[in-house]
Backbone:
């Protein structure tokens, strides 16, 4: 059983999947600035609700961003802690790619990149790009895109889907790599793609 964790935004999610990536269960939620504190309790509750135990896990998959500096570090710390304690392989997955994997009809995924900027990953693109509010507005309509609830409110985006199933995408995208080429537990880090606010690259 793969444990999936996604915490790149204020919409967190956890998932359980079979070793081939097939979804068993997923839970997502919207939070304020303390989304990280909910990851472990919600994961344990999801396991219990589905009659599963943490010890049944065969691998850990974690969203690595881009996104919230703190959220990514908390999610990766939890994933690494589980992998280390249970001696499991771990794989990091690009968060926006996982959001799109979890919502097959979404044309793009949008995450906060600053007060007036966003990360944008089009479905046919390989890497996300930073766009400002004007560039984002020019892409209208954005209905059906995946975006955190707080971002949609702040940027006035209508008709977007919250990434509440994102951990399912994380688990499905990680499945093959968990068996063949997992990441190194020590060196796996968030993919911030640029320095946090106030720090030079």
Residues:
């Amino acid at each position: 059983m793969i444990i999936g964790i996604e915490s790149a935004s204020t919409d967190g999610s956890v998932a359980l999947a079979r070793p081939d990536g097939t979804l068993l269960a997923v839970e997502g939620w919207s939070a304020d600035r303390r989304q990280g504190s909910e990851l472990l309790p919600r994961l344990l509750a999801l396991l219990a609700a589905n009659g599963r135990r943490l010890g049944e896990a065969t691998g850990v998959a974690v969203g690595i961003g881009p996104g919230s500096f703190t959220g990514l570090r908390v999610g990766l710390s939890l994933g690494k802690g589980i992998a280390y304690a249970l001696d499991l392989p771990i794989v990091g997955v690009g968060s926006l790619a996982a959001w799109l994997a979890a919502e097959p009809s979404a044309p793009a995924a949008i995450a906060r990149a600053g007060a007036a900027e966003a990360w944008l990953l089009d479905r046919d693109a390989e890497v996300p790009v930073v766009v400002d509010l004007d560039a984002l507005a020019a892409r209208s309509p954005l209905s059906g895109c995946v975006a955190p609830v707080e971002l949609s409110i702040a940027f006035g985006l209508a008709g977007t889907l919250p990434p509440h199933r994102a951990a399912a995408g994380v688990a499905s995208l990680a499945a093959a790599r968990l068996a063949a080429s997992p990441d190194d537990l020590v060196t796996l880090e968030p993919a911030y793609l640029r320095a946090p606010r106030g720090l030079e690259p």
Q: What stands out?
A: Helices lie at 39-49, 69-86, 95-102, 133-138, 149-155, 166-180. The mean pLDDT is 92. The radius of gyration is 16 Å. DSSP finds six helices and eight strands in the chain.
